[in-house]
Amino acid sequence: MDTTPNIAGTDTSVSVRDLDIHYGALKALHGLDLDVGRGEFLVLLGPSGCGKSTLLNAIAGLIDITDGEIWISGKNVTWSEPKDRGIGMVFQSYALYPRMSVYDNLSFGLRMTGIPKAEIAARVDKAATMLQLVPLLKRKPAELSGGQRQRVAIGRALVRQVDVFLFDEPLSNLDAKLRAELRVEIKLLHRQLGNTMIYVTHDQIEALTLADRIAVMKNGVIQQLAPPIEVYQKPVNRFVAGFIGSPPMNFFDGRFSPAGKAIVLGNETVSLAPYPFRATLEAGREVTLGVRPEHITLGEAPPRSFAATGTIDLVEPMGADTLLWTKFGGHPLTIRVDGEKSFRHGQPITFSFDPSRASLFDRASGERL
Length: 369
Known about the structure:
The protein is globular, with a radius of gyration of 25 Å. The two termini are 40 Å apart. Helix content is 23%, strand content 34%. The protein is an alpha+beta fold and 369 residues long. It has 2 domains: 12-242, Rossmann fold (3-Layer(aba) Sandwich); 248-362, CATH 2.40.50.140. A hairpin with a 3-residue loop joins strand 17 (314-317) and strand 18 (321-328). A 6-stranded mixed β-sheet has the order 6-7-8-3-9-10, sandwiched between helices. It has a 5-stranded antiparallel β-sheet with strand order 13-12-11-14-21. A 4-stranded antiparallel β-sheet has the order 2-1-4-5, with helices on one face. It has helices at 52-60, 102-112, 117-130, 146-158, 176-193, 204-210, 228-233, 238-243, and strands spanning 12-23, 26-37, 41-45, 67-72, 75-76, 87-90, 164-168, 196-201, 213-218, 221-226, 250-256, 262-265, 268-271, 286-291, 296-298, 306-311, 314-317, 321-328, 331-338, 348-353, 359-362. Helix 2 (102-112) crosses helix 3, helix 2 runs parallel beside helix 4 and helix 3 (117-130) packs across helix 4.
């Protein structure tokens, strides 16, 4: 039977089919399917132990799989050696040769494959120019900053001139300022090259800013695969909703009201008439309402919004924004407001939110309703 993925005539670059990776009783990945478009920037996002690095290493050929298939550029590479898969990989650690210059680190892999010196020089020059490494080519790794070392590690992958690049948390060892700078550089690099890039991170800011699509993972399963804005605005379950967003989404447990499209949260009843339901809900069904802090406004409620009052329990200035903590329906509530405004502990406030921008989940399954 022909098991070739249906990628003929399409722009699919990497295909994973029914992938299982087990370590004894532990199922690191199970039944995982994934298609990555040619030229796409896909981010694998999730907490530690979710399987994102395991999936990346399986695509790279660095670990053996239990079952399933991996295809790259239309070729079944399930059991191929890493060097034969047409990939370039950038690791979390720079893994540079300390006694070699930047030039020698960039060219070492090419020299080992017997590529002519002139072509090696051309490839190194091109990668060094793109990554602003030309003035550093004679330096040793010890003479470089962390950001410069990571550029060299990226350049070492670029000189291979492959179709697929794999990044395993490449910025996690850098400070916040360098991470922000290299995020921009990696995004610009992808725009210049147009190659397929698969990027592993636990940092949602990296995922939201870099990705064409995000695959949010938990316990070896992809929970949601969608563009960043869709993952943010319409999370498919409570896990995704709580993982994406900083500060996290506010959650309120309640019951669907028999009086109509409303949810009862303690002593509060929130009308959900504007909410685009995907399911028919029976009276009394236990649900969870999710509202993002930035979707809550202070002052007079706009039309079709739900309004309530509270008292500020805590003020967290964050520069451009300020976080206010209060309570609603017996639950803690976080509100993100403009950082230029002044607030104080104990101050009474009126706040509101538009139910159509909220998320509603089944409390038992966690699935979006």
